[in-house]
Amino acid sequence: MADSTRLVEQVHVRIDEFLNTRVPIVAAISPDLTPLVDFSRQFLSGGKRFRALFCYSGWQSAGTAAADSSPIVSAAAALEIFHAAALVHDDIIDNSDTRRGAASAHKLFEGMHAESSWAGSASDFGRAAGILLGDLLLGWSDELLDEGLAAAPDGEAARLARTEFNRMRTEVTAGQYLDILEERAWLTQPEDELLDRALRVIVFKSAKYSVQAPLVIGAALAGASPAQLDALRAFGLPLGIAFQLRDDLLGVFGDAAVTGKPSGDDLREGKRTVLVALARQGIADGPRRTLDDQLGDPTLDESRIVVLQGVIRDSGAVDRVEAMIEANVAEALRALEGSPIGEDAREQLRSLTEQVTRRAF
């Protein structure tokens, strides 16, 4: 745990240092650009740093004893900046006003427009500026990763880490597209395919990018063997699925004080999750029509959310998702047993498994 705490502190410092180097670049263009750095700093100051921790655990799993940890700290920090970029874009796509209990990026820009009495639509300005901020963070994550890879002592390991990062970037973008596709195309798909399609979204939008890819990037950077990389992939994918299944439960039943998002937000956004697919399988035609008609209605108030929560709970879907979480966690932990990974690293991965899958409502 001491190593994890130190890593989180180092990542925070590295991100802060990196942003400081970008201040004079944007300031030289125009003082009007300072909100881009200020809002970036705000979005990168919090969060659980799970991706950074998995990246570091992957590095440890290779048995590295390198005295210089700067390459892995930079890679872990780059993943956190990439994650921030994804959240900025995700909130725009989902029309989500809050993130971690505060205003989302596009709402910050919208508020700035309104307070300044500028011309035109504050909402349009907020969305456009938010898209650009997300793009900027994507570019910065790439720059910071390159700084870390340049400091790596093993050029081949650095190239493999870059390849894994590039694959992750493609997969999560594909997963995000599949997510918005399912929200709109589910009605035209065969009923018996909806669960598998929802699972496919989980794999590519979240599981790989939240857990598996950070593990493999860190391990690759440390020069891990093919057997070690295979073991981490076998561990990371089911754990990533369990992580997102827990997130899906929180998105419907979570306490806003814990999640930083309004309770039932996934219902307003119309997320066609595994939870929803399972709920539809377990209810009669009337409740199913209620769920289908109201899911995705941004005007859902608390009373209607309570009704939909009851429909989902009564369907047995919550228990089935909990069982899927347990099964995926068990599969992930089995992958660790007998793997060519040191016991210290395995213990760290067991601890992270508990943290990402036991989050309370």
Key phrases:
Polyprenyl_synt_CS; 361 residues; metal ion binding; two-stranded antiparallel sheet; 2 strands; Farnesyl Diphosphate Synthase; 2 domains; prenyltransferase activity; 16 helices; magnesium; mainly alpha; 1% strand
Task: Report what the structure shows.
The chain has 361 residues and is mainly α. It folds into two domains: 1-46 and 67-152, Farnesyl Diphosphate Synthase (Orthogonal Bundle), CATH 1.10.600; 170-361, Farnesyl Diphosphate Synthase. It contains 16 helices and two strands. The protein has helices at 2-29, 34-43, 50-61, 70-93, 105-116, 122-150, 155-185, 194-221, 226-253, 256-259, 265-269, 274-281, 285-294, 302-314, 317-336, 343-357; strands spanning 98-99, 102-103. A two-stranded antiparallel ribbon has the order 1-2. The chain starts with a helix and ends with a helix. Pfam families: polyprenyl_synt (PF00348).
